[in-house]
Design a protein that fits this description.
483 residues, alpha/beta, Amidase signature (AS) enzymes, 11-stranded mixed β-sheet, 15 helices, globular, binds glutamine
Length: 483
């Protein structure tokens, strides 16, 4: 059961080979056994999960089951889920129980999926290693001395260790794709606006986007069918016709034009990662694709641009945590200003404070034009590079991350080194494009390598097709860690 695809699980549930209660219990038992070593989940609510499973069994018995009905899905702890503790990896929200459902949670509930638990993450989704979580680091299931990537590290570890059938993540600068790469799973960050951000705790609103993480592209397509869709409560949600993201999975790849950005294969890329990615490209040629070299000249500026814009937006978004309305409040204070100061000083961790300070600085009078406005202009140029590139290719491929999973603690003291982990993913968020990562081999240290596939706007169905055809021809996606 733990190796079954979502389609196989759905078929087994509908054929009554297993009930949702039995399946959910199997996963809960596995979580009880393995989560203490991995720290992938921060909150479980066995009673709530099993009650949902019971309701799903009733739906299945009544014959009104959908593709995801009865399937246990883990939710990144950034999504508000009614009655569930929702922490966003922070002491600030340690005791926060959400009074409402995020749109994504609502969609899964409506589909009859089971919320199996809330997964660990970097505090407020700021990080690339899951080490900034107030609830402690997550261990990579392939090697417990290494990080799972971040910020959706708990989700990536849970999927890799078979502690859920599939799960959700969010990606502001790479947080779905990078942990997917480091844990040897598949993950998709959709086009900005395709999945509603309502009830998803905000980090940098012009970049944040939720997406699915799972074992293979086919699973991601089923997850997208549930997650995506217009929601008027998110002003950036796009009003588009409902899509079947699985519709193109079986198309052959003859004639597919793959763009390889020369900037993604230059200095800084680990030679073992390069080798695995090049082997994947060779496989694509066998599947009928052709390769063109392209250039994304402005993407070299994506890290500095992101580290102006994302902190600017975060400093504004995180001002709501003031100790007054909800979240942590310092126990002792003298007056109102002191209460704000102490609550925020004690409730936020070091990385979050660093971002708030950078953000406040770049938005302040005198620096706004020099930093924030400049960064916005370069963001436009970065997006324009992709428009130009897509005149010559259908999808873009390259590495997801410059290296495989690094050791816990290895980059903790050097924020800039940590920021560089996202060098190939961030431009995609700045442009609002869809991007995914699929496993394509192993590096020198036997850790998984991710292949990044970047699509044009709204081209998720094609990207899933491109990933699925590769997964039919290779078996990297079905390798699982020995635990
Ligand atoms: N690692 C990046 C950061 O720290 C991206 C995080 C994300 O995508 N949520 O901001």
């Amino acid at each position: 059961m733990f190796e079954s695809s979502l389609k196989q699980l759905g078929d087994a549930l509908r054929a009554k080979k297993i009930s949702s209660v039995e399946l959910t219990q199997l996963y809960l038992d596995r979580i009880a056994q393995l989560n203490p070593g991995l720290n992938a989940y921060v909150t479980l609510n066995t009673e709530a999960s099993l009650a949902q499973a019971k309701a799903a069994d009733a739906m299945l018995a009544g014959g009104d089951a959908q593709a995801m009905t009865g399937i246990p899905v883990a939710q990144k702890d950034i999504f508000c889920a009614k009655g569930w503790r929702t922490t966003c990896g922070s002491k600030m929200l340690d005791n926060f129980v959400a009074p409402y459902d995020a749109h994504v949670i609502e969609q899964f509930n409506r589909a009859g999926a089971i919320n199996l638990g809330k997964t660990n993450m970097d505090e407020f989704a700021m990080g690339s290693s899951n080490e900034t979580s107030y609830f402690g680091a997550v261990k990579n299931p392939w090697d417990n001395a290494r990080v799972p990537g971040g910020s959706s590290g708990g989700t990536a570890a849970a999927v890799a260790a078979r502690l859920c059938a599939a799960a959700t993540g969010t990606d502001t600068g790479g947080s779905i794709r990078q942990p997917a790469a480091l844990c040897g799973i598949s993950g998709l960050k959709p086009t900005y606006g395709v999945v509603s951000r309502y009830g998803m705790i905000a980090f940098a609103s012009s970049l944040d986007q939720a997406g699915p993480m799972g074992r293979c592209a086919e699973d991601l397509a089923l997850m997208m069918n549930t997650m995506a869709g217009f929601d008027e409560r998110d002003s950036t949600s796009l009003q588009r016709d409902k899509e079947d993201y699985a519709r193109d999975l079986d198309k052959p790849l003859n004639g597919l034009r793959i763009g390889l950005p020369k900037e993604f294969f230059a200095e800084g890329l680990g030679s073992d990662v390069a080798k695995a990615v090049e082997a994947a490209i060779a496989e694509y040629k066998k599947l009928g694709a052709t390769v063109v070299e392209i250039s994304l000249p402005n993407t070299r500026l994506s890290i500095p641009v992101y580290y102006v814009l994302a902190p600017a937006e975060a400093s504004s978004n995180l001002s709501r945590f003031d100790g007054v309305r909800y979240g942590y409040r310092a126990p002792d204070y003298t007056d109102l200003a002191d209460m704000y100061e102490k609550s925020r000083a004690q409730g936020f961790g070091a990385e979050v404070k660093r971002r708030i300070m950078i953000g406040t600085y770049v938005l302040s009078h005198g620096y706004y034009d020099a930093y924030y406005i400049q960064a916005q202009k370069i963001r436009r140029l970065i997006a324009q590079d992709f428009v130009e590139a897509y005149k010559h290719c259908d999808v873009i491929m390259g590495p997801t991350s410059p290296s495989t999973a690094f050791k816990l603690g290895e980059k903790g003291d050097d924020p800039v080194q940590m920021y560089l982990s996202d060098i190939y993913t961030i431009a995609v968020n700045l442009a609002g494009l869809p991007g995914m990562s699929i496993p394509c081999g192993f590096g020198d240290n036997d850790m998984p390598v991710g292949l990044q596939i970047i699509g044009n706007y709204f081209d998720e169905a094609r990207m899933l097709n491109v990933a699925h055809q590769y997964q039919l021809a290779t078996d990297w996606h079905s390798r699982a860690p020995q635990i």
